[in-house]
Structure formats: C-alpha cells, structure tokens
Amino acid sequence: MLDYPALAALAAVVREGGFERAAAVLGVTPSAVSQRIRALEERVGTTLVVRCQPPKPTEAGTRLCAHVERVRLLEGELVAGLPVLGEPGRGNAAPVTLRVAVNADSLGSWFLPVMARFAERTGAFLDLVLDGEEHTAERLRSGEVLAAVTADPVPVPGCRMRLLGALRYVATASPGFLRRHAPQGVDAAALARAPVLRFDRRDGLQARWAQEVLGIPLDAPTHWVPSTQGFLDASLAGLGWALNPKRMADAHLAAGRLVELVPGRPLDVALHWQHARLGARLLDVLTHEVATEAKRSLSQPAEKQES
Amino acid sequence: MLDYPALAALAAVVREGGFERAAAVLGVTPSAVSQRIRALEERVGTTLVVRCQPPKPTEAGTRLCAHVERVRLLEGELVAGLPVLGEPGRGNAAPVTLRVAVNADSLGSWFLPVMARFAERTGAFLDLVLDGEEHTAERLRSGEVLAAVTADPVPVPGCRMRLLGALRYVATASPGFLRRHAPQGVDAAALARAPVLRFDRRDGLQARWAQEVLGIPLDAPTHWVPSTQGFLDASLAGLGWALNPKRMADAHLAAGRLVELVPGRPLDVALHWQHARLGARLLDVLTHEVATEAKRSLSQPAEKQES
C-alpha cells in the first residue's frame, strides 16, 4: 500500500498552505513533514509539491491529495460505525471535510442553507472552492473536489450527475442608469454604449442575453466586479447594467431600486450536481440536501431528468 | 518605440481571455492578432503569452500589458484635453479602464461607493482584481494593477502610499452556535473544538484574534467559505464563529442574530492605498475618492500618517 503518513503530510502542506502549519496540525516537526514528502517523491519518481509560498501541488501531487481526501471520507464512515477506531488523543471521529466546487452565484443565492443543514445533520465540514459554473466540473475531473455544482452537462468519468434546475437571471439596472443611458428605451443602440458589468473574463452572461433578446453582439465599456454581492451592489449604484440572480434581485425590483431591462425576458442557466461515485454516506446526505434545496430554490423544468 | 498595435493586441488577448474575442474588440481577424503577437515575441526574444484556454501572459507579457495600461491611461488624459485626438469611429475619448486590486472584505464593506463616485465623476471604468489584503501589493509590484488597497505597509517602488485607516473586524457567532459550542462561555477549551470559518488558506484573522484575545493557538475544525457575503451568511446560519467586518455585522449584532464572542475585543487591520506615480488625473480622482470614503468608513488612528 501507499505510505499514508507521507500522504497525510502532503495533503496537510497543501491544505494548510505551508510546511510549518502542516507540522503543527500533524503534531510533528516541519523537518519530519519535509522528509516524509521527499521520501514519497523519491518513491513516486516525481515532484509532488513546488516549494513556493504557499506550496503548490504538481499535477501528480493534486491526484495524491484527492486520493487522501477520498480515503479519509471512507475512513470517516468506518469510524462512525466503529467508534473504537477513532484516533486516540483527538477524540473519536476526527471531523471529515468534503471539498466541493460551487459557482459564486449559487453560493450567493441558494447554496448556503444546504451547507447549514448538511453540517447540522452530519457534523462534517465543507471546503468550498469557488469557480465559474462552466469550470467547476474541471475541478471534479482533476480530482481536486468530490462534488460540484456545474453548468457542464457532460458527465465526469466516475461521477454521478443529476439536473438540479435552472438558476434564473434577470437583466437589471438602476432607474437612474436607464434614464441616463437608455432614455429612448433599451434597444441595440443604447446597449452598444451603455456601461455593462462583467464578473470576470469568463463571464459571458450579459453578452448571451444581449444576443438572445436583442440579437446584438455586446462590445460596450465594462466595469469588472468579481463578487456576487458586489455585482448586485454595483447594479444598485448605477455603475452598469448586469444579469443578477433573480432571487437576489427580486426585493430590489419590487422596491423599484432595480428595473428589468426587458421585462419578462430572464436567462436560465441549467445547473447540475456531479459527485464522485464513492458510496459514502456523507456524500449521499450532501446530495440529498442539494437536491432538496434545488427543488425549492431553482426553476424546475416541466419534466425532470436524472442520470 | 515599441510596436503599439502589437502591444494592444497582446493586451486585448489577455484582457478578453482569447484571440477571437480580442480580434472582435480590435476589429481585425484572429490571425492578424496572432501574427502581431508572434512578431512582437520575435522582437522581444521571449514568449509573451502561453496559448492555453484562456491565454495566460508570461512574466514578460504581464510587464508589457501593464505598460500598455499606463500608456493608455496617459493617452486618456491627452484626449480629454485635446478631444480632436479621440479615435475616429469609436467616438471621442474611448473609455479608459483602471485596473485596481482590492481585498474582498473592502469591496464587501466600503469600496463600492468609491467606485460609483469615481465612475460618475470621470466616466472611466474600473477593473477590480480581488485578493487577500496581504497580497494586493504584490499585484502592484508585478505591474498587474495601477493601485491597490493593501495591508502591506512597505511602499512599492514607484508608488505613493497613504494610510487609509483600519478595517475593524468583530469575532461573531450566532446565539444558537454559542449555546451549542460554548455553553460555559467562550474560553480556550470551547474554541479548541468549536467549528470556525476561514475564507481561504491565507486567512489567518481568526487565529490572530484567538491568539491576541485568548492567548491560544487555533486548531479547530474548519468550514472554508471564500466569499465575504457567504462568510457572513455562514456565521448567521451557525456554521462556525468568524471574524466579520464590523460594518457588515453591526445590524445583525443589534438585532441579536449575531453575538460578539468577547464583547469589546475587535481586531483592526490597517489598510493602505498604494498607487503608481503617474501624475494621471484619473488616478488622482480615484485616490481622492478612496481617501474621502476611507475617512468616513474606516476606523481612524489618533494621528494620521502620510508618505
């Protein structure tokens, strides 16, 4: 079998972002951590972690860390059934952490109650990795996370997938913004020049909406605001028009602080839940909570699909 | 002089995240973009952009992009004074974008009004880069941004620095969380096991507070939530205790949805504004708005320092 103390040292260095902190967590000296990892690298025949600040795992290192997470998850299940196995000195059943990739807009609009109920039911911990909904599945493919909320409908090998529903976006701006930049109404001419918000380089939602609803390519001056709440706040402040999650915009629309650019023309982004097939109870509980909250909070298609 | 059409192509590829999109913005074909960059690389004698998805600038490429941003900023000033210089076809004074690094908690708690007033006064655009307050200065040092909100008090060469004041954090948890995890009161024993939140691997605020206020090293089970609003929401949901910006927590503290772990023991993080010495009016306006809002929203020291 693999050298698990060395693997635990590697995972701790990556997770804690340093050899010293990893050593503190493991209760050994930093040089012991360093020796274990060097021995593992010699055995595997490749560098596993680049010694920079913070240390960065190589591709091989990432795979081994992902393996450690999976083994630890399965161990957690064993310990729950056989409490006598719990590590002495740290109490029974040292808490298990599941690393999960979520898109920022899901975290901002519906994922947090999932996290709260999961933690309450299981006592386990979540390590959220934020990425664009088009890119969370890559994190699953690389083994970095155990599960992902993703817009990618292509099943990741070794994973189960289910359609969660759609995160509904509305194209919004402040009333003052529209008076200033679209006094004649929202049309192609107005949107060619009106400032727009984008989350980051990969955020194509505004362009997609402009194409689908007004049939125009979008090439307007842009404020870049890489935060879900900041995006909404920037819309409210009149910095630009933007697609915001409907659940977050609704109260502001009702109060007249935001206006829909073209009423009744939302944009739906279908979201899927993909998770490793591990047969681990914790992942099943998380999947159940994700599916339950999604049914409540996401737009549901007329017919449901599962795979 | 350098080949500016080629530099503009390089900057567009990096900014837009692709050769096709850069070509659309520049109004040329993707192969023209590619040829210009290749010619520039031959002249400079090194690779400037790694052809992956999205394309990534090399260190040399990053420096050249930063140079383009600076030249463009100075050009914007010229155009404002001499409107006849504005590029034909795109209207006068094509909008200038300033790239600025901000820590997530500043964006969540006080930076947005700065952005709104700056945009209103100047018509210019901001491209926000989020990073930890300990790391925003590196972005300035590498030339990636023109200015940064940073906790780093070491002046970056070629930049001006001013102390903005302190972002005040309070250690908070939900009342239910404290009943469950600290029924005997918040002490070293309770915090050794009570779940804690961390923003990311580099977030040492909770550990710093525990060390300063209770004199203990923190090694408790952790939920990782890399979002300022998500962090506050997770605190409200009772997932863990955490340091939240006081401005964001205040209403929840007043309403009893959050409780201070040790009343009257906040943690202050001094923030500085560092910006390139360019003598550009837009940067001066932004600096003025940053300083004005900081005076209003950040805790001010008894004596002010400037450099």
TrEMBL record, chains A, B:
Keywords: DNA-binding, Transcription, Transcription regulation. One of its GO terms (molecular function) is DNA-binding transcription factor activity. Residues 2-58 form the HTH lysR-type domain. Signal peptide: none annotated. PANTHER family: HTH-TYPE TRANSCRIPTIONAL REGULATOR ARGP, TRANSCRIPTIONAL REGULATOR. Belongs to the LysR transcriptional regulatory family. This is LysR family transcriptional regulator ArgP.
